[in-house]
Specification:
Elements: H1 2-5, E1 12-17, H2 23-38, E2 42-47, H3 52-64, E3 69-73, H4 80-89, E4 93-96, E5 107-110, H5 112-125, E6 131-135, H6 140-155, E7 164-166, H7 171-183, E8 193-196, H8 199-211, E9 221-226, E10 239-242, H9 245-262, E11 272-274, E12 277-279
Parallel strand pairs: 1-2, 1-3, 3-4, 4-5, 5-11, 6-7, 6-8, 8-9, 9-10
Antiparallel strand pairs: 10-12
Helix pairs in contact: 2-9, 3-4, 5-6, 7-8
Length: 288
């Protein structure tokens, strides 16, 4: 702070985290902290629970501490004027993970459309055509993945089988949604696979399948999206689309620090879109 008062950089970065309990966001925090420490910066964290008014309170504290810039992890909800306050308080802002649409901040994101295609190609190659999508549309990326799923099904001649089930991405909510889904599984279309828009939804479904005595993947294939650390340790281990959260955080922090050190305004910096990859484990299998 004393250095900042003298007109030099404080070497402090503020982080506004939408949900510090998110396992995927935890990966991002690890990556951004590694990048910050590597470049001589320190990080301080605010948990904002998606509310932009709380974010502004933290942002004001960051401003008083002379933070050189801020990183926003996940989506914030609020009106446009509130986001403009953030932009006035901080010249350098980068968002990571979920997309903040219509704001003049660069972001580091995973390509949701490509990730969905990887998931659907995998299920299709195993013979699955009766595929449903479970998503949380409170997330912009959740909407994008559902749209990409629906587009894929239509393009592959399976438009009549399109079915999107909406749930929260929490383990408990997806478990409850999964119980209802498996209870009515004998419906007319009889889906054989589920594309879950997040790993937390997929993991809730795995537990619901266990409670409903549905054998995965013999009776139903399930694929997730994120590759959180826990995904490799579910029963069976979860097939998923890897977003590489640590890399996302590392790239985002380096982008912000480059902006700070090169005196580049947020509005003049382009997004960085990272390519996801498919991780095949044991929760998907051939259609029997």
């Amino acid at each position: 702070m004393a250095r900042a008062l003298r007109g030099s950089k404080s070497l402090l970065i503020g982080v506004l985290a939408q949900n510090i309990t998110s396992l995927f966001h935890s990966q991002i925090i690890v990556g951004l902290n590694e990048a910050a420490v590597e470049r001589g910066y320190r990080v301080f964290l605010g948990h904002v629970q998606r509310a932009v008014n709380i974010a502004i309170d933290y942002s004001s504290m960051f401003e008083q501490s002379h933070a050189d810039g801020i990183l926003i992890i996940g989506e914030l909800t609020g009106d446009r004027d509130a986001f403009d306050v953030l932009a006035r308080q901080h010249r350098h802002i980068v968002t990571i993970s979920d997309r903040l649409t219509d704001h003049n901040f660069p972001g580091v994101y995973s390509d949701s459309a490509l990730g969905t295609q990887l998931a659907m190609d995998h299920l299709w190659s195993l013979g699955h055509q009766q595929i449903i999508c479970m998503t949380d549309t409170s997330l912009q990326d959740g909407k994008l993945r559902a749209e990409a799923y629906e587009r894929y099904m239509h393009e592959h001649g399976a438009g009549d089988a399109v079915r999107i089930i909406y749930t929260s991405r929490s383990f408990q909510s997806s478990l409850e949604t999964g119980r209802l889904f498996f209870a009515e599984r004998g419906g007319e279309l009889k889906p054989t696979a589920v594309f879950a828009a997040t790993d937390s939804i997929a993991i809730g479904l795995l537990q619901a399948a266990f409670q409903s005595r549905i054998i995965i993947p013999d009776q139903m294939s399930i694929i997730g999206f994120d590759d959180i650390d826990f995904a490799a340790f579910t029963v069976p281990p979860l097939t998923t689309v890897r977003q590489a959260g640590i890399q996302m955080g590392f790239v985002g922090a380096n982008l912000l620090i480059d902006m700070i050190e090169q005196e580049r305004d947020s509005s003049k910096v382009e997004d960085i879109i990272l390519k996801p990859s498919l991780v095949v484990r044991e929760s998907t299998g051939w259609l029997s």
